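Feature request disguised as a bug report, sorry. It would help if multi-protein outputs had a clear separator. Right now it looks like this:
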Amino acid sequence: MIKVGLLGFGKTGSLVAKEIAADSELELVWVCRRKIPDNLFYASHALGFDQSFAPFVSTEQLDSAYLDHFPVDVIIDFSNSESVTFYSLFAQKSIKIISAISNYNEQEFKQVEEASHKTAILASPNITLGINWLLVASKLLQKIIPHSDIEIVEEHFRDKSKISGTALKIAEHLNIEPSQHVNSIRVGGIVGKHEVIFGLPHQTIRLTHESVSRSAFGTGAIFAAKWLMSKSNGLFKMENIVYEKFVKHISNLEI
């Protein structure tokens, strides 16, 4: 049983918590959030469970003594970039970390890197399995047809103001300029959609990933946590998992 501590309980974090609680190989030990509502002490009750488990802990209460009293094997972080201040503490306790934060600044990411010298950390701005398959597949297709035109289209909910961190990451991996080749659409009813379009003479190839529920982030984080348990110190990305699986199975592929 993998013991999990969760940072963040917003729209995405609460769905991630539900996915963790439903997985028979994981135990949700506690959930950290900035403020704890009055008369709501357990995340399990907020998720609709009758049982009392996964107590809420505030950011002020989360310290070394708390971690000794409520030990976990892995932290799954769906809060914000400020949570990186806890990473050195987690690393000292040899707790592995899954970070789904997309907007670290340079100084914050240095803290992530420093913590990875003492524990295993997987950091990816979009931790869904599908988007990382799309990223690897796009890089492979670009190598096969290097002279194609490439455009990235990212679609998100209306209130998302900044350009998608995932789209920027795809552009970086494909070595194309985001300001010229990333197109953003903001409308209601969309969770998140990314499309990579390859333009060739007389034809186009489109690789598309769409999240129909934020729960996809939970299944991706769980998959990553199980993979990370066998790793020692170091900084990993979700693409490492996908690439490892790809290399493992490509030799058995029959054409």
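(second protein starts here, but nothing in the output says so)
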Amino acid sequence: MKTDLQKHNVVYTRVFKAPIEEVWKAWIEPEKVKMWWGPTGFTCTLAEMDFREGGTSLVCMRAPVEFGGQDFYNTWTYQNIKPYESFEYILKFTDKDGKPHDPQEMGIPPGVPKEVLNTNQFKDLGNGKTEITIKEFGYATEEAAELSKQGLDQCMDKMAAIFVKP
């Protein structure tokens, strides 16, 4: 997928108190994805993971009742996987069957493209800590990119909670 440098992109970095293997698994194991996918108040009701180059996962996040309770489906089609280092995927807004769907028809704000190229880079910091840098490409407006970044931050807060030991 070709990216347009005139578009607005998101760059997000987070350090987790977890070994790289655990952070990696949080992205590819269905039960772990269900624990964090979706911003605060949203739940992940479906995570059919096909994590391999050329594979496509189908995920669904459900809005809380106060935001309409709507289901938002996405596919993640993977490319360039380097285990415990990086992977790329193209996020597409879809219906429950994985067929492409216009994000604005789903109530997603203007400026969010139908397809978003994502790159995830992992770095082992030692002492059981892992840094991840996530990049999202192609938002039409700064507002749409900022909204995505806020949602991503909330998702990563939920992911961080997975690694907290009681």
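Even a blank line would do. Unrelated, but nice: The CA atoms of residues 12 and 134 lie 5 Å apart.
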